[in-house]
């Protein structure tokens, strides 16, 4: 039987503490030298936290983590453990990335027990484990990379981070189904989960947080893979709009908030006569169900006969537009393609679309308008609702629209 009260305390049984009794150090953060990464982490890495960096093989996870060693090494001791490359291979890569520090220690090892022993002895400030799929615990008989091994190793690294205040970065390869070592087995265990994404055909990479115990998950970091490693892209809009066709129907520029930053991106749509009984809809970079809803609104409230057209929607640059303000540009891109009319390339569209075809107010309008202006656009469609006080930067004409009919009639 469990004994309560004084007796319990004397025999070493822990009791819950009141809020006042709990001691805590305030959160200690350090910068990684990459502003884009710091932003996604919520303002730098937190001491004693475990950050999982996931992504497809070859996307640049090892490059990212080796690259930050240069700056981390200025003040902190870093142990980089690789189960994938030999020490000399890592050194070659470090040379290429111009990583020069005396505080970086390399270890090629896959046995978790050995890694933990060496870490306890060396007491680094930061441990990088690349990758979790290559590590194995001797206490577990299943093979490296199996769900139970990956779980055990992550748990041990988590205990190391919490117990000794070491900040741990763990690389996790994402398999074809898009989850790290099986069905997202690690996400609930760790403090932060960052995904590194990109299109193989392009050099840019987007880092986003799927989970962050110490910050928001809205921010994205944008990089470009160059010969000498990852280069930060502080103004992603320029990159996302580069190479945009200006005289073709079926394209419209959106402005969405990615965390605290407004970002411009091109939405393309193709409406083509269908040969199916049920018209096809496909989406890349935009929510599929939202697109179906918008196409229905466009048909019913905008008077476009889309039920005889397949509609394909694509957001250029690998960005996922999951913000209501992207409704209007998606809808206008589809209408532009359907009508075969070019949407003016100097115009941006911002607005949420409701089921009656009304254009609804969006947040952060003035911030968005400054970004639209900064990129040289001359006109911007905005919701009439809630925008009475919005002022346009000089040289940017605001077109306030109440519903999708007004928006279509004005632009197409
Ligand atoms: P890598 O970091 O090894 O990917 P991951 O750890 O996610 O599997 O990145 C490998 C790719 O990056 C590879 O295709 C080569 C390319 N790369 C560059 O283009 N420039 C560089 O400076 C480096 C180090 C890699
Ligand atoms: Mg790697």
Characterization of this structure:
This protein is of the alpha/beta class and 412 residues long. It folds into two domains: 208 residues, P-loop containing nucleotide triphosphate hydrolases (Rossmann fold, 3-Layer(aba) Sandwich), CATH 3.40.50; 173 residues, Ribosomal Protein S5, domain 2, CATH 3.30.230.10. Helices cover 28% and strands 26% of the residues. The protein has eleven helices and 20 strands. The strands form four sheets. It has a nine-stranded mixed beta sheet. A seven-stranded mixed beta sheet has the order 14-15-13-12-16-19-20. It has a two-stranded antiparallel ribbon with strand order 1-2. α4 links the parallel β4 and β5. α8 crosses α9. The N terminus is likely disordered. The structure holds thymidine-5'-diphosphate (TYD) and magnesium ion (MG). The site of thymidine-5'-diphosphate (TYD) has 15 residues, from α3 and α4.
CA-based shape: elongated
Tally of separate domains: 2
Strand order of the largest sheet: 5-4-6-7-3-8-9-10-11
Number of strands: 20
| Largest pleated sheet | 9 strands, mixed
CATH superfamily of the largest domain: P-loop containing nucleotide triphosphate hydrolases
Class from secondary-structure proportions: alpha/beta
Let me know the average pLDDT. 91
Head-to-tail CA distance between termini: 78 Å
Number of contiguous helices:
11
Name of the CATH architecture of the largest domain: 3-Layer(aba) Sandwich
| Radius of gyration over C-alpha positions, nearest whole angstrom | 26 Å
The amount of helix comes to 25-40%
What ligands can be seen in this structure?
thymidine-5'-diphosphate, magnesium ion
CATH fold topology of the largest domain:
Rossmann fold
The poorly predicted ranges are 1-9
Strand content: 25-35%
Q: What is the CATH class name of the largest domain? A: Alpha Beta
